[in-house]
Design a protein that fits this description.
By secondary structure, the chain is α/β, with parallel strands linked by helices. The protein is built from 7 helices and 11 strands. The chain has a single domain, classed as HUPs (Rossmann fold). The protein binds adenosine monophosphate (AMP).
């Protein structure tokens, strides 16, 4: 079974994100970039499927600027077999990403596509669902467990207040939640080996996809600064402040 995994290059999760002075977005110049953490989980799951003999080939796909190659190399070092970069400097919104992935999937014909449940930069949580809809495939989102059973897939989903297990017919789209697995670190020999693995480069034009943004970002703002805490002298004072200052009781 061939697997395709989508890996997005995002601002590293340890970086304190700063809003640009003109409030048009967040600062990405000279900022450490890494693979979206949910996509690391997606790659790990694919690699485990290959190790278990369920998957035969893993293709890692990234869409965006030329440096997305580095993100693909990380996936290759974790165990993916080859990469595809759809290179563009244009801003890519989830619908455009889903359309591009669909075009790649039509060429590659994988049985299973694994994405992160959301990208930590835009927090959209849309691409997997849009992709499944465009392909007309089954979808198992927020997966905390995935098991292949012949031509079917059992996906345990993290839903409010518990877990839900769904049975999907392959081909299908899965999006990963945090508890699906703990991604491995790539070893140095595997990082070296990854340098020799092939990466094909395509463009939205070659795939015949219009990536024009459909949404306009009006303004990006920092969250309000938290006020310093105060020490109160008595329970009575606390109740008074909660009632009359915070107005929460
Ligand atoms: P989002 O809908 O933007 O929150 O993204 C959900 C998932 O879609 C991510 O975790 C990735 O697996 C995939 N994805 C989104 N944008 C890209 C991109 N530019 N390149 C590769 N994968 C992407």
């Amino acid at each position: 079974m061939k697997l395709l995994v989508a890996v997005k290059r995002v601002v590293d999760f340890n970086v304190k994100v700063r809003v640009k002075a003109d409030k048009s977005g967040v600062e990405t110049a000279n900022v450490k970039m890494s693979m979206n953490p949910f996509d690391e989980i997606a790659v790990e799951e694919a690699v485990r499927m290959k190790e278990a003999g369920v998957a035969s080939e893993i293709v890692a796909v990234s869409l965006g600027v030329a440096q997305c190659q580095e993100t693909i190399r990380t996936a290759l070092a974790m165990g993916a077999d080859r990469g595809i970069l759809v290179q563009t400097d244009a801003e890519l919104q989830p619908l455009a990403v889903a359309k591009l992935l669909k075009a790649v999937i039509e060429k590659e014909q994988p049985k299973l596509v694994i994405l992160g449940k959301q990208a930590i930069d835009d927090d959209c949580n849309q691409t997997g669902q849009m992709l499944a809809a465009l392909l007309g495939w089954a979808q198992g989102t927020f997966a905390s467990k995935v098991k292949v059973e012949g031509e079917q897939l059992l996906v345990t989903r993290e839903v409010d207040g518990g877990l839900e297990t769904v049975r999907l017919k392959l081909p299908a789209v899965v999006t990963t939640d945090l508890r699906l697995n703990e991604p491995r670190y790539a070893s140095l020999p595997n990082i070296m080996k990854a340098k020799k693995k092939p990466i094909d480069t395509l463009t939205p034009e070659a795939l015949g996809v219009d990536v024009t943004p459909r949404l306009v970002t009006l303004k990006v703002e920092e969250p309000p600064k938290r006020q310093a805490g105060k020490k109160v002298g008595s329970v009575q004072e606390l109740l008074d402040k909660l009632r009359n200052e915070a107005r929460v009781i």
